[in-house]
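On clarity, I found the account of how folds are encoded harder to follow than it need be. Since the whole study asks how a given chain folds, the encoding of that fold should be made plain. For illustration, here is how one protein appears when written out as sequence plus structure tokens:

:::
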Amino acid sequence: MRNRRNKTSLWANKHLRYIIGTLIICSIIYYLPTFGGLLGWTSIKNSLGGLHNFYGIDFYGLLFFAPVVYAAYVLGVIPAILTALIAMLIFLPHSILIDTYPNFLFKPTAFVIILSAVGAVVAMLQKSEQQQRQRMKEMKCLYDIGKAAAESSSVDKFLLKVVELIPDAMPYTEETKVRITFRDNIFQSLHFQKSRSKIIERLAAGGEEMGCVELYSTRDNPYLEKKNHLTKTLAERISGAVRELELKHSLQVYYEQLEDEVEKRTKDLEQVQEKLIRSE
């Protein structure tokens, strides 16, 4: 049953379907002159067959850059190399049976090396770009949390904003759910549900443990399978902001009490002064 589920999820990957479809189309075009010759269409064979060896370059082989580059961009280096190896297997029948080049392995091997190299470069560039975008999302989230702390009048209002902001810093925003436990109160994302992919960080400040922040992903998310710098920084930033809001609230209560006390003392002094005036 597990194998069946794995096969279903494999075919559910739209990128894999696109790669397979592109490989099939490229293969048909690659062997189009051969098919034309087998069907007796000599004009097609003669007009298109020359592109297999146009000044020593197999222009039909260049078509396979499309699935390899696509695989590298959306799936990474290993899928790109596997796609290049499949392209090599597609080249082999033509190299063995049709191509007049002395060494039938040379062209397919050279092509697969070039395709793999291009795929690896594209995959590394894509990964670098993706990491940069992720860092920008993380920085924006931390900025927004600081802004929310400055604009919130209470801890509860701040934490309600935080559970909405944290998913924006994750690679899969829609699939990420957040729950914050602060002392006896719980704040959580809309439609919150637990899942296997999770990470938990405790909230603590000044030696006091105040609760924890939990991040869950409804899909298998490697980003949450191990602790990383972002979740730890988020917990530290939230803990510091909560402590600051509590101190701010305490000071505000103290000032209000002080004002009330001053006002009361002032009234008492006025009453005493009136009594002294009357006694004179």
User: Anything to note?
Assistant: Residues 1-10 have pLDDT under 50 and may be disordered.
